[in-house]
Amino acid sequence: MDIPWWRDAVVYEIYVRSFADASGDGVGDLAGIRERLPYLRRLGVDAIWLTPFYPSPMADGGYDVADYRGVDPMFGSLDDFDALVTQAHELGLRVLVDVVPNHSSSAHPWFQEALRGVGRDRYIFRDHTNNWKSTFSGPAWTQTPDGQYYLHLFAPEQPDFNWRNREVHEEFLDVLRFWLERGVDGFRIDVAMGLYKAEGLPDVGDQSFTSVSPVWGQPEVHGVYREWRRLLDSYPGERMAVGEVWTDDAEDLARYVRPDELHQSFNFAWLEAPWSATAFRKVIDDTLAAVPYATWVLSNHDVVRHRTRYGTDDPGAGLARARAALLTMLALPGSAYLYQGEELGLPEVTDLPDDARQDPIFFRSKGELPGRDGCRVPIPWTVDPPSHGFSPGGVEPWLPQPESFAELSVEKQEGVADSTLECYRRALALRRALAGEIPYTLEWLDSPEGVLFFTRGPLICALNCGTGPVHLPEHTEVLLTSGPLKRGLLPQDTAVWLRRAS
Ligand code: NOJ
């Protein structure tokens, strides 16, 4: 059987607002991405995933879509999009786009009609509320001037669709067709376990992101993905979909990737695991046992960057651990999702001034929660202020970059052998070179406490989450390390790829 392209693909997430600004307004755009496609090709990824660039009032960074078939002028035009897809394909990069089916923007024409009393059944309007909370803090209901309330699991500017209305299905099938016709290779599905809410909207005890609750993970949602799968399969070129499914239960995750549903689902248990060999091993075992094709992700635009996460107890260790985790992730069977800037070792920016913050989580929690702006700070391409090459000329970026970004910029790291950027490039190049020799399966080898050794055919990966240096497995030669070895030993917070000596 032929292996589908996405099974082992490395996908690079582009948070469009923060990747590269060509127009000079301080906000990233499609033309900026085009200019940087050769950088991504050189990095060695297989595909890019673009976060929403659709017309939007930007109440939630574009996850509040007002028109599912357009490009916000802030990001460019449909022509820019078409040119981006063409150029990416010429460079051998596939393109995934985000689809946001759980909710629209309150500026969407359907919601505007609903406010006027037309087609309210496309959304969830009720005379009375229940006790559901918004994921962004505060109630999940907002009252309209005529007294009814509408449901929004996120911001009030993001009213939830009613997926019990067939018209909503038809609309999204048409939206998918629109982008498939423009040549996209697949979709990342926002809030994929949302969409349906339990009949009668019963009160909940704790509606946090649990696998199945009246709020999330209703069985009817799988019917949507079966229909989408049939649509994707009707196009040539192995079009695919990856679901944003927040669950720490691998068996629940598996339900989304049954053979007639989504091709992939994000595996957030890996991202949520602490820096611990035991925790990592459990997630790896659970994942491989549960799903036919695994995915792995360490960071994205919604979570604290993993360099900072892994340094919570020991900030000095964050970068070494982040690089070790990357090498481990890239040695696992399946596909890996990278988040822009992790290849530079960017930390979470924790000291953004309040007046610069834009995430609705910060505002809705009345400043109690910092929100996600700290992982969305624009990419530093060069050492030069004010934007480190993100915007042309003297333009300030939409979120301020800390001074430390100069040292972490692409310009500073390019060609520097022990830089994080070169570590990523070497790892991705080697992964590609070894691909033909490596089976999908993984076997564990005996290892000291706090350390993982696993093998896939000729490749062995060793990760040291312990407290001191350890011996490498015998009869091996070193291919790549995330940091220097010490007198032939693997230091803590370091990973290595080895080849069995023949
Ligand atoms: C998940 C997206 O990744 C996040 O950024 C967004 O706020 C929510 N879904 C709501 O669309």
From TrEMBL:
SMART domains assigned to the protein according to its UniProt record, in alphabetical order: Aamy
Domain Glycosyl hydrolase family 13 catalytic: from-to ranges: 13-376
Cited Pfam families: Alpha-amylase
Keyword list, A-Z: Hydrolase
CDD domains: AmyAc_OligoGlu_TS
Entry GO MF terms: hydrolase activity
Keyword match Aminoacyl-tRNA synthetase: no
Family membership: Belongs to the glycosyl hydrolase 13 family.
Protein name per Swiss-Prot or TrEMBL: Glycoside hydrolase family 13 protein
